[in-house]
Design brief:
Oligomer: single chain
Number of domains: 2
Number of helices: 9
Order of helices and strands: EEEHEEEEHEHEEEHHHHEHEH
Shape: globular
Radius of gyration: 20 Å
Helix content: 25-40%
Strand content: 15-25%
Structural class: alpha/beta
CATH class of the largest domain: Alpha Beta
Strand order of the largest sheet: 3-2-1-4-8
Largest sheet: 5 strands, mixed
Distance between the termini: 27 Å
Number of strands: 13
């Protein structure tokens, strides 16, 4: 049975699947990255896991995988198929596409940024299905984004497209590791909300989920923290709407697990800010933490329809 390998590499763990031509998940598996042993060990863990998946396909489906797709955190160089930089994994200029192809017997390999790969899946299979243009914004430890156009995701000329978390929404505000001040992710990521709530509540272990619960229970301190995050997110989204004019905005990540506690005030805050822009639908992501793996599978199948891996790398 013809199939592809889909691999989603995270900071501490990897999710993988063998995916059939109709999108069916034929086999699923998880492994640790081995990050505590250093960046070279992580590379070897990825390669070994991929080889294990290839062997499983040969044993159970009568043939090796026809292609592979892999999603990684950090900066991806589309032209060279290189994981250019990942703070989570300690990687710099890892030629992952070529390394994986060699380990897998020469099959083609597609490489993608984890958020853009997840956005590809949300656009084709999830909350953006049927939308010709969408913006996927996961709110996690940081904030990134994926720009969807016509069933594909835009990587940009240098692999930085969609980085909405580094739109400056509070000039001269909180310093950001990127070198700017006042970036969106310093105010509206799950990490930022958790930190602000821990300080307001005087509870060092409190996080964004605790803040959402306190908002729902009517705590005025939590409501203040939450509204500040919502206002910052709305400011960033309106900038994105002005530039991209998406039909649908998909909100994912840990903060989106608050559901309408987040989405109802966010829709209202965006509505108050628009002037000439058209309001998009603002909806929750549908695929959860499976999005990256599903998107990697889509990339792998797309790769079989082109002769240029760079066209699929996102």
């Amino acid at each position: 049975m013809r199939h592809v390998i889909a691999l989603d590499v995270g900071g501490t763990g990897m999710k993988a699947a063998l995916v059939g031509a109709g999108g069916e998940l034929l086999h699923r598996a998880r492994r640790a990255t081995g990050r505590e042993r250093g960046p070279d060990a992580v590379v070897e863990s990825v390669l070994a896991f991929a080889a294990e998946l290839r062997a499983h396909g040969e044993r159970h489906f009568g043939e090796p995988a026809a292609a592979a797709g892999v999603a990684v955190p950090g900066i991806v160089d589309a032209e060279r198929g290189v994981a250019a930089y990942s703070a989570n994994l300690g990687w710099r200029d890892v030629p992952l596409r070529d390394l994986l192809s060699r380990r897998l017997g020469g099959v083609p390999v597609a490489l993608g940024h984890d958020v853009r790969t997840g956005g590809l899946a949300e656009g084709r299979l999830g909350a953006g299905r049927g939308a010709d243009r969408f913006l996927f914004v996961p709110l996690g430890t940081g904030i990134a984004g994926a720009i969807g156009i016509g069933g594909r995701v835009e990587a940009g000329a240098h692999g930085f497209a969609g980085e909405i978390g580094h739109i400056v929404v509070r000039p001269q505000g909180t310093p950001c590791p990127c070198g700017q001040r006042g970036c969106l992710e310093r105010y509206a990521s799950a990490a930022a909300v958790g930190g602000a709530w821990a300080e307001a509540a005087g509870a060092a272990e409190a996080d964004a989920a605790d803040c959402a619960k306190a908002v729902a229970s009517g705590d005025p301190r939590a409501r203040k923290v939450w509204q500040e995050a919502v206002d910052a997110l709305a400011d960033g989204l309106v900038t994105a709407l002005t530039l991209l004019d998406p039909r649908t905005v998909i909100i994912g990540g840990g903060l989106a697990e608050a559901g309408e506690t987040l989405l109802t005030p966010l829709r209202e805050a965006v509505r108050r800010r628009v002037t000439f822009q058209k309001l998009p639908s603002i909806v929750p992501a549908a695929l959860g933490d499976a999005a990256g793996c599903l998107g990697a599978g889509l990339m792998a199948w797309d790769l079989l329809e082109t002769t240029d891996p760079a066209e699929v790398t996102i």
